[in-house]
Amino acid sequence: MNTIDTTWVLVSAALVLFMTPGLAIFYGGLVRSKNVLAIMMNNYITIGAVSVLWAVVAASLAFGHDAGYGLIGNLSLAGLGGMAHGLPGFAHSGASPLAIVTFQMMFAIITAALITGGTADRIKFTAFVVFICLWLILVYAPLAHWVFSPEGWLARRGVLDFAGGTVVEINSGFSTLAIVLVLGRRRGWPREGMAPHSVPLSLLGVGILWFGWFGFNAGSALGMNGVTVYAFVNTQLAAAAALLSWVCFERVRASYPTTLGAASGAVAGMVAITPCAGFVTPMAAILIGVVAGVLCAMAARIKFKIGYDDSLDVLAVHGVGGLVGMVLLGLFATRTVNPGGANGLFTGGGLHLFGVEILAAVVAVAFSFTVTWLLAKVIDMTIGLRVSPEDEFAGLDLTQHAESAYSLGS
Questions:
Q1: What is the largest CA-CA distance in the chain?
Q2: How do residues 116-143 score in pLDDT, each as one tens digit?
Q3: Is the peptide bond before 196 cis (omega within 30 degrees of 0)?
Q4: What is the 3-state secondary structure (H, E, C) of 152-175?
Q5: What CATH number labels 3-401?
Q6: What residue spans define the domains of the chain?
Q7: Which residues pair with 123 in a beta bridge?
Q8: Model-level pTM greater than 0.85?
Q9: 308-363: pLDDT as tens digits
Q10: Could you tell me the sign of the dihedral formed by the alpha carbons of 89, 95, 98, 101, in that order?
């Protein structure tokens, strides 16, 4: 075990965990005041439920040995045991196997928490807990094995995904689309105004996300090396470029830039650079950020035309941003940044990498959407996904948790 590499992975794991409270604050500011605690609680219960399930079984399904088909790991790592001989396929890493699995635990937490943005204001708390537990086992763990485990079938085909363009971003975006289609629209949407109750709170949350994302991306190098530096720098540049391009898009389309647009743009840039962070040059990262800012801003407007109620634009920012990152990675990846990677279409690598990146993106969309929709449908038909109209009107803070975020009187 290399102590420096292990230390960096553990520090990065802490940074990634910090992103989930940041996400809770970001989402909490975006909902109406009667639902702020409910969405924060959904984020915090995700930390608890996913952590325990990951340790007991999900980590083994994601990173354990499989039968040779690359589809799912066995139970050799169940209970976080069986790592004395190392993590399957990670012999090249100097970091402790347990540190790597713990780092990946935080990825699973934030991915599940992202779905709360789409289901805001109307999902039943108990149904959400059941959904997240089953979703971790049935959707997240298999996809993580395919891409993140060196034994996974997509990884063996040469797919590059540095920190989760498929497993985290596309997965969360299209899983959110699936569950909101089962849930249905918020009552009154889009006729009634449902403005954020605290934009400053959301901006603080994005600041925490931005800070934690350095651990998310740079930590995925699994050690202290040159690729770590590239991932760190590329994360900052893509976020900054996407912030600017989203704001410029708003200025052209709506005549005024917004603070939420700036915040959403920064997140879109970090989403898009997530699969690319350790494989592209800084100038490519800026271009990726610019493209992501514009396309994600455009995608955020589509829901009003199509009519699906993704409350906080998880699909537009994370689903579309993840697709942008995977496609552009196939164009701009270069071995000059990461000798362990591959060259993209524009850097002399031909069509191979571009093709497998498209394959991984399509597989992630189809798998996450289909299985999540089926899971949500089963839960809805059994215990019910949605609160009653009366509870939705009164607000989830009171009806689901008997609390109020703001007590301004007796």
A1: 69
A2: 999 999 999 999 999 999 999 999 999 9
A3: no
A4: CHHHHCCCCCCCCHHHHHHHHHHH
A5: 1.10.3430.10
A6: 3-401
A7: 386
A8: yes
A9: 999 999 999 999 999 999 999 999 999 999 999 999 999 999 999 999 999 999 99
A10: negative
